């Protein structure tokens, strides 16, 4: 699977999987994040092997319903935003998942922006 150069060097971890849960691609950051567990060696393997039952159910739900999953985590003193969403093939059918994992500050501002007035 080819990705544009900017995705390869994006500072957040990007992992792409197929409908059968096979990992298709990881950018440089994702390979580094999972380095101690094999890094790019995960490409071609099932991502369900490294997830618990709860996570497997969430993965199945996203693939079945086409809805995303988002949350934050803290691990080793680092806070991350995790966004997982289905990607679709040319016909519009769910074809797999994309996971973005980005480090964020512990005190992240949140803004509420109102929509522009209707004309």
Can you walk me through this structure?
The protein is α+β, with helices and mostly antiparallel strands. It has one domain (5-104): PAS domain (Beta-Lactamase, 2-Layer Sandwich), CATH 3.30.450.20. The protein is 19% helix and 33% strand. The protein is built from three helices and five strands. The chain has helices spanning 5-8, 28-33, 53-65, and strands spanning 13-18, 23-26, 69-75, 78-88, 94-104. A five-stranded antiparallel β-sheet has the order 2-1-5-4-3. A hairpin with a 4-residue loop joins strand 1 (13-18) and strand 2 (23-26). The model has no long low-confidence stretch (mean pLDDT 90).
How would you summarize what this structure contains?
19% of the residues lie in helices and 33% in strands. It is an alpha+beta fold. The chain starts with a helix and ends in a 15-residue tail after the last strand.
Write the layout of secondary structure elements.
Layout: H1 5-8, E1 13-18, E2 23-26, H2 28-33, H3 53-65, E3 69-75, E4 78-88, E5 94-104
Antiparallel strand pairs: 1-2, 1-5, 3-4, 4-5
Indicate the low-confidence ranges by residue numbers: none
Helical/strand content category:
alpha+beta
The tally of beta strands, per DSSP, is 5
State mean pLDDT (0 to 100 scale).
90
Classified in CATH, the superfamily is: PAS domain
Distance between the termini: 44 Å
How many helices? The count is: 3
**Sheet with the most strands, sense and barrel status:** 5 strands, antiparallel
CATH class: Alpha Beta
Instruction: Please identify, by name, the CATH architecture.
Output: 2-Layer Sandwich
């Amino acid at each position: 699977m080819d990705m544009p150069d900017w995705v390869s060097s994006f500072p957040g971890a990007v992992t792409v999987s197929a409908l059968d849960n096979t990992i298709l691609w990881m950018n440089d950051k994702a390979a580094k994040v999972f380095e101690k567990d094999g890094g790019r060696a995960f490409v071609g393997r099932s991502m369900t092997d490294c997830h618990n039952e709860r996570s497997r159910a969430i993965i199945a739900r996203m693939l079945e319903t086409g809805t995303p999953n988002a949350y934050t985590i803290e691990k080793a003193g680092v806070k991350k935003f995790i966004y997982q969403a289905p990607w679709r093939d040319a016909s519009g059918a769910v074809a797999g998942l994309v996971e973005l994992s980005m480090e964020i500050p512990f005190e992240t501002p949140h803004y509420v922006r109102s929509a522009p007035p209707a004309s």
